[in-house]
Amino acid sequence: MDSTPLAEVADRCAGVRIEPPEASEENVKVLGVCHDSRTAAKGDLFACIGGASHDGHAYAPEAVSRGAVALLVERQLDVDVPQLIVPDVRKAVGHAASAVYGYPSAKLKVVGVTGTAGKTTVVHALAETLKAIGVPAGVLGTLEGSHTTPEAPDFQKALSSMQKRGDDWACVEVSSHGLEYGRVNGTDFAAAVFTNLSAEHLDFHQDMEAYFLAKRRLFEQTNGVLIVAVVDQWGERLANELRESGRQELIVVEPKMVENPVSDVRVSSFAWRGHKVHTPLLGSFNMFNLVIVGEVLVGLGLEADVVARGLEEVTPIKGRMELVPVRGSDVSVIVDYSHKPGALSLALETVRSLSSGRVWVVFGAGGNRDKAKRPLMGQVASDLADEIIVTSDNPRYENPSEIAEQIVEGVDEAGVRPRVLLDRAEAINFAVRHAEHGDSILIAGKGHETYQLIEGERKSFDDVKVAEEALLARARRALP
Predict the structure, then answer these.
(1) What are φ and ψ of residue 425, in 5° steps?
(2) Are 441 and 332 in contact, with CB atoms under 8 Å apart?
(3) Domain 322-478 falls in which CATH fold?
(4) Of 62, 152, 309, 433, which sees the most CB atoms within 10 A?
(5) How far is 277 from 455, CA to CA, in rounded Å?
């Protein structure tokens, strides 16, 4: 197993001092970096990261007892191992981990994708397009772990694993939390991508300005190609600020670059840079996501005709406008992760464009998260759906009925009267059972998730499986 001298790790951390000083001259070698004392192993550097409810410094003795050979700290501790003392462990640990894991981002083309919506689709489409044209690529994001962007040690270790298994590219989601907490510090990005920005995580960022500034950090620390989708005021602002700063490697992507779009519930098509692209991905916004992917790859030196062929090989992503396949069904059911007003609006508009009948929506909102978006989601449903069922999402420690009430507050009283069915399975079954021939049902909010978080418990629940069973039951009832 490769090891890194502690002195080299220290060199990567700004403002560091080593205690005791003679430790810099000792032959201390680091094998890994960890931030959870329970997973510390022999040879690790333990990073004392603080959290909202704990201080990582308190767990240093346990980490040392498990084999940690050094600590990354903000204050010297009474523990008998070398300590790298830095002003901010969170800001330093990514640089330390990059050194320990062999500077993996210098050996890969790392593409970081940030924005409110579309990150998961874009990173997976990037990787699938690359693989289709014979370029090995890995993915890191929402579908690969518990955090969209893992803590810095895990992030660098994942990049190292990709490089060692033979990947040439790494396509990664970069969340605003990840940027705020420095989880991608120490990473050399070949390209940074901005998709869009809408109200989300305002319980964490407080306002849209702070949210935007967190996203912008990715572009401030990227020396490579910068790709900005201009679909809202935030994309326009970012593009203008990057131009004003003299960044020459800026690529702006606009919706008009999706040419001659034709949408269908099974296969859609569009033209990009003179090349026809057929795709099973649903919706105009997914066509735009593919154009973003195309522009990224052309910006990084690939030929447009080769990229266009690769785009056709991109398959639907679990829980992202995922059509539930039941042969012979007379209604369409689509499962999507849309859990914020803008995303719900796009999803419903897409379903409307594809449906020959009424549009149903089954959705809720997560508990212990931004409450301001709940009535806005109710308003979106009221404006764009013919039938509304408000149900439970991940209530966490909140009362599901109170969440539902806040959603219903946004529904236009003169419009569709929403039903509130808090049992999510009951809500899905009701929609499928009462839909008419040609109707379409959007089940929104949870997408790829196969659980519900209720009072601290993770209970199994899969929208796709529940919908599939409901559709099969409907088909059986229709048999003579």
Answers:
(1) -65, -40
(2) yes
(3) Protein-Tyrosine Phosphatase; Chain A (3.90.190)
(4) 152
(5) 46
Using CA atoms, how far apart are residues 394 and 147, in angstroms rounded to an integer?
A: 16
Structure confidence at residue 370 (pLDDT)? 85
- How many CB atoms are located within 10 Å of the residue 180 CB? 18
Q: List helix spans (H) across 250-354.
A: 284-299, 304-311, 341-354
- Containing 52, the helix (H) or strand (E) segment is none
Q: Which has the closest alpha carbon to 97: 155, 26, 172, 168?
A: 155
**Could you give the CA distance from residue 153 to residue 47 in angstroms, rounded to a whole number?**
9
Measure the CA–CA gap between 40 and 65, rounded to whole angstroms: 9
Which secondary-structure segment (H or E) carries 227? strand 225-229
Q: Could you give the angle at which helices 284-299 and 119-132 cross, rounded to 10 degrees?
A: 60
Q: CATH homologous superfamily of domain 4-89?
A: MurE/MurF, N-terminal domain (3.40.1390.10)
Please report, for the chain, the start and end positions of each structural domain, with discontinuous segments joined by +.
4-89, 104-311, 322-478
Beta strands in 74-188 (DSSP E): 83-85, 109-114, 137-140, 169-173
Residue 423: helix, strand or coil by DSSP?
A: coil
The residues with which 47 forms a beta bridge, in sequence order, are 72
* pTM for this prediction: 0.87
> In CATH terms, are 4-89 and 104-311 the same topology?
no
Separation of alpha carbons 126 and 376, rounded Å: 32
CA angle 473-457-360, nearest 5°? Answer: 35
What is the amino acid identity at position 386?
D
Give yes or no for a contact between 377 and 405, defined as CB atoms under 8 angstroms apart.
no
Calculate helix-pair angle for 284-299, 341-354, nearest 10 degrees: 110
Q: How far is CA 167 from CA 61, 145, 222, 369, in A?
A: 37, 19, 21, 36
Instruction: Confirm if 109 and 170 have CB atoms less than 8 A apart.
Output: yes
Distance separating alpha carbons of residues 168 and 135, to the nearest angstrom? 7
Provide the phi-psi class of 387: left if phi over 0, else alpha when psi is between -120 and 50, else beta: beta
Q: What is the pLDDT of residues 361-389, one digit of tens each?
A: 999 999 998 899 999 999 999 999 999 99
CATH class given for the domain over 104-311: alpha beta
pLDDT recorded at residue 62: 97
Is-cis flag, bond preceding 61, omega within 30? no
Model confidence over 64-117: pLDDT tens digits? 999 999 999 999 999 999 999 999 999 999 999 999 999 999 999 999 999 998
- What is the amino acid identity at position 297? L
Is 372 buried (19+), middle (13-18) or exposed (0-12) by CB count in 10 A? exposed
